[in-house]
Design goal:
Two copies of one chain form a homodimer.
Chain A: H1 3-20, E1 25-28, H2 35-43, E2 48-51, H3 55-69, E3 73-77, H4 81-84, H5 87-96, E4 100-106, E5 132-135, H6 143-161, E6 167-173, H7 209-220, E7 225-229, H8 237-248, E8 252-254, E9 270-271, H9 274-277, H10 281-286, E10 291-295, H11 302-310, E11 315-319, E12 334-336, H12 340-347, H13 358-374, H14 385-395, E13 401-404, H15 408-416, E14 425-427, H16 438-446, E15 452-457, H17 458-463, H18 468-474, E16 478-484, H19 503-508, H20 516-521, E17 525-528, H21 532-540, E18 546-552, H22 555-577
Parallel strand pairs in A: 1-2, 1-3, 3-4, 4-6, 5-6, 7-8, 7-10, 8-9, 10-11, 11-12, 13-14, 13-15, 15-16, 16-18, 17-18
Helix pairs in contact in A: 1-2, 1-6, 3-5, 3-16, 8-12, 13-22, 14-15
Chain lengths: ~575, ~575
């Protein structure tokens, strides 16, 4: 059999099927062993190919596209450590349930574990951090093997997408010579089933009518119920859960990534300052529910986590359409495996509208008071990390995407970004909460969602500086708001801050970098913010490419500011709850 | 039992033992879960702690220290994707046999797979890319568990170091609160066996007298033997193998990383231009041996690899003290598991000195002619990648370390860096040959070996720009010679170069970056080379910190220059072998 023909037909069949399976983007990192796949993918008339030299950033970039498009994105790299660089993004995709199709080129069997160059053991390279691993058969052009390439491809895309979504890994052994035959007119023509080899349909998990009725009965038996929504992306969920809340008069504690903090859905029942007021002991006591229904991943708020854990004698339903076990506190009493929107819709018919909103009103009062007092952050003239998020909520245009870094930005967002109807999409990498790959994930998202604002700290920015190359090479508009407190700001809030001896060296870790230089290297626009007027001004300008706006803050002052604000709000809450106001 | 006391005593016992087991350096990446280990390590009076925010670069930095010091180096990071960032360096360490002790902090058992923040499955995280994995017991302060911590530590260091050396992974579950008790005078005092809990001695593999005699007999039976030395770091090997060559009058084909190209050992039998002359068909025919003894990893030279494969009917001994299978050509007839220096010494007594050097003389003549003609590269005034290595061989100070990037630099070094007595140590990451982590590996090596010169291409430099932070933060002197051909130069030498359609996009991948900006950000000195005089001049200046010397070249011109030179040398060789000169 002709080697080049086998190579070409097998790969072209796979690539055809990739597009037919819903993949639109492929992120390719250059390399030699991956040559045939890269060249064939590039020939495909519909696939968008993004070239990214650094595989670590490349995989996060793909993660960002997949998050924003809710489609599986394919990534391709050569053999060896190149593939190992994908690991961080794969681990993140696995936990945050983002569909990725990871394609690694490999030496053929006879060149493995024999000292051949650029060869590492790639079998099950990512362990159980992928949903599915396939060691692909070497390319062959028989009817049987073309069917094999196509079915594996269709299965890979469907597996990546099916709940819980996640990464799959296909390892391709390629023998030299590696050049496919591209001057064929029929490269992507499929001899059988031209529309796609096998259409894979995946249903969503629903409760039976009896289960739904039982759950509705359970829920309505309690008078002090509350809903907690962590990070969640299920279609139609915002409308469904707010209907449920309205009917039952339940407060919804909405994490920034629940997509409930901003949008056209009913915001009446959204509670968005619990992270602040649940630091208050009296609030924790008085607001204690007798029922909790939780959706989505764990919320970012530590005070909420503690609150949930203190409700150890309370019935706690955890709903998860992805079949996980999201209960670090070991406090759930019911684990409900059902697609979240379906669940709301299936129990709604069994629930009668409640008129008594007494319990919700208590939450609402505390929430309004807290919002009011947190707004005092805006009175400061100093450059403050907290005020920044309050300003963003005010200034960002409708429909914008706000991507936030881990550590402090997501927490400050949680505190200072309150419900609005602007439909601002909030994104972050909250699967494993790493500071790695954030720039690239945001840039990937920015290829689909515009305008996109990325707010992150200096260590997070530093960790993925290489990611900026994509902005340069593809002119991706992104407005990066860099909060530079010269080090790891979050550690100032942790117990190690009380041990000053080696704190700066081990945890503060100031880098003392002037990022303006690197922004310039990537052809970006750079601006250092001096005051809030300038900040508001810079936000109103459109950006056509890479734009970095830097705000320098001070870690100690930031800590003091947060503590003072929380203390003063807490005082007000105590007064309210004691009936003094 | 007191939590803090358990945490402190257990970790301090481990850290004490770490130092007693020969570890001198620990590279720590900041994080929360790793707090107790980081704080205790930092208290140790003897351990050198290097802080590195980017875990990918951190692990490569540790790899560099371990390579230069030949001691195990420990690395520590927090839980989650941080640990996944270590993977590329671990894969490299595993194949290039470099001892690393990888310590990852993890959530305790009850916080795993339950949606807790920053938690990924870290059990066997690196698969079979580490030699040993231990899920550590949670900290306890019983006599038993202190012994456990100490023995696991001693075993880890010894396992990492024992041939084949490599990485080991210890995963530490830590429960909150994470702060150890550091105000103890007896922190590192060991109650039992204060000198170290268990001294682990590892012997080297040697042949029995009978095996050695048999091998000596086999070898001496052949008249046209040759030795091939790939990358190897075994102590005393250069002296031992040159003695063997001298006694038997065997040519030694010495890879740049064999450490035979520069040093005080006898250079008479060193053949250093085979990559060039083995491209000549006549040379391949006339120089065909009847016996090959190969030491070390596979050499970088592709012409040599082809030559070895063409010698399919020749007895080929492969000697490996690490027990691997370094034979991608499937052509070895004898696999000999024996420490390489030992092997030479054990067969020498059974070998009589030969007087006939006829076969070696043929090699020598071709080698000298090739050297002579390759030197013509120096006649060009243009900035040339080839000439650069010739200039380096001439100009570098005695005892310097030359670290080379993968792809073109190692190949040009192979072609243009010929035997000298300067004792220049040549280093590279030739386990998996990745372009990742090269800057950091070189910087790690530079903490032990000075002066250090790093020569690398622009894609390799770009891939690990973050590594430069170590130079800034620790004032590590390093002279980086950046060959900027704006893209992947090596691809011009591969078959895909004949398919111009998407070549630039998929393989050329120009980044169009002005690296001066980023060098400035890291506080480095930058110089763009205009001519060779300036280059010679810049090499004579000492460097006290980061210094980047950039040479811009052109990929097409470089390809043409190499081809012309190889063609003209090949012509001369043909003439020589035809008896015309």
């Amino acid at each position: 059999m002709n080697h080049q023909e086998s190579l070409t037909s097998y790969i072209a069949a796979f690539v055809s099927e990739l597009y037919k399976s819903g993949v639109e983007d492929v992120v390719v990192s250059p390399g030699s062993r991956s040559t045939p796949m890269a060249m064939v993918i590039h020939e495909h008339p519909e696939l968008r190919v993004h070239i990214h030299v650094d595989e670590r950033s490349a995989a996060f970039f793909a993660l960002g596209i997949a998050k924003a498009s809710k489609r599986p994105v394919a990534i391709l790299c050569t053999s060896g450590t190149a593939a190992a660089n994908y690991f961080p993004a794969i681990a993140e995709a696995n936990i945050s349930r983002v569909p990725l199709i990871v394609m690694t080129a490999d030496r053929p069997h006879e060149l493995r574990d024999v000292g051949a160059p650029q060869a590492i053991d790639q079998i099950h390279l990512y362990g159980n951090h992928v949903k599915w691993f396939v060691e692909m058969a070497p390319p062959e052009n028989t009817k049987e093997m073309i069917r094999y390439a196509r079915t594996v491809c269709a299965r890979a895309a469907s597996t990546a997408l099916r709940a819980p979504a996640g990464p799959v890994h296909l390892n391709f052994p390629f023998r030299e010579p590696l050049i496919p035959q591209l001057d064929r007119d029929d490269l992507f023509e499929l001899n059988e089933r031209a529309h796609g080899y096998v259409k894979i349909q995946s249903g969503d998990v629903s409760l039976t009518k009896a289960q739904a009725e039982e759950m509705a009965e359970s829920i309505t038996a309690y008078k002090r119920g509350m809903i907690v929504c962590g990070p969640i992306e299920t279609d139609g969920f915002a409308e469904a859960v707010t209907q449920l809340a309205k009917k039952l008069k339940l407060p919804i504690l909405a994490d920034p990534l629940s997509q409930l903090r901003s949008g056209k859905h009913d915001g009446t029942f959204i509670i968005d300052t619990y992270d602040t007021f649940l630091k208050n002991e009296a609030a924790m006591q008085q607001l204690k529910p007798d029922l909790i229904i939780r959706f989505g991943a764990m919320p970012v708020s530590k005070s909420l986590t503690i609150f949930l854990k203190e409700c150890e004698d309370v019935r706690q339903f955890v709903v998860d359409g992805g079949g996980g076990w999201r209960d670090p506190g070991m406090i759930s009493t019911e684990m409900i495996y059902c697609q979240e929107t379906n669940l709301c819709h299936s129990i709604l018919p069994f629930i009668e509208e409640r008129t008594d909103s007494c319990f919700f009103d208590q939450w609402k009062d505390v929430n309004q008071l807290t919002r009011h007092h947190l707004a005092k952050i805006n009175e400061t003239d100093a450059l403050s990390e907290g005020k920044l998020f309050s300003q963003l909520a005010e200034t960002l245009p409708k429909g914008a995407t706000l991507f936030v870094g881990n550590s402090m930005p997501i927490r400050d967002l949680d505190t200072f970004f309150h419900f609005n109807e602007k439909g601002i999409k909030i994104m972050g990498n909250r699967g494993a909460n790493g500071i790695d790959g954030v720039v690239s994930t945001a840039l990937g998202a920015a290829t689909r969602s515009q305008p996109l604002y990325l707010v992150l700290g200096d260590l997070t920015f530093f960790h993925d500086l290489n990611g900026l190359i994509a902005a340069k090479q593809y002119d991706i508009p992104i407005h990066i708001i860099l909060i530079n407190n010269n080090g790891g700001g979050i550690f100032s809030f942790l117990p190690q801050a009380n041990h000053p001896k080696n704190f700066e060296k081990l945890f503060g870790t100031p880098l003392n970098l002037e990022f303006e230089h690197v922004v310039k290297m990537y052809g970006g626009e750079y601006e250092l913010i001096k005051d809030w007027r300038q900040f508001a001004d810079v936000l109103t300008h459109d950006c056509s490419g890479l734009k970095v706006t830097e705000i320098t803050t001070n870690r100690d002052r930031n800590l003091a500011e947060h503590r003072e604000l929380w203390a003063s709000v807490s005082q007000e809450i105590s007064r309210l709850l004691a009936g003094e106001c």
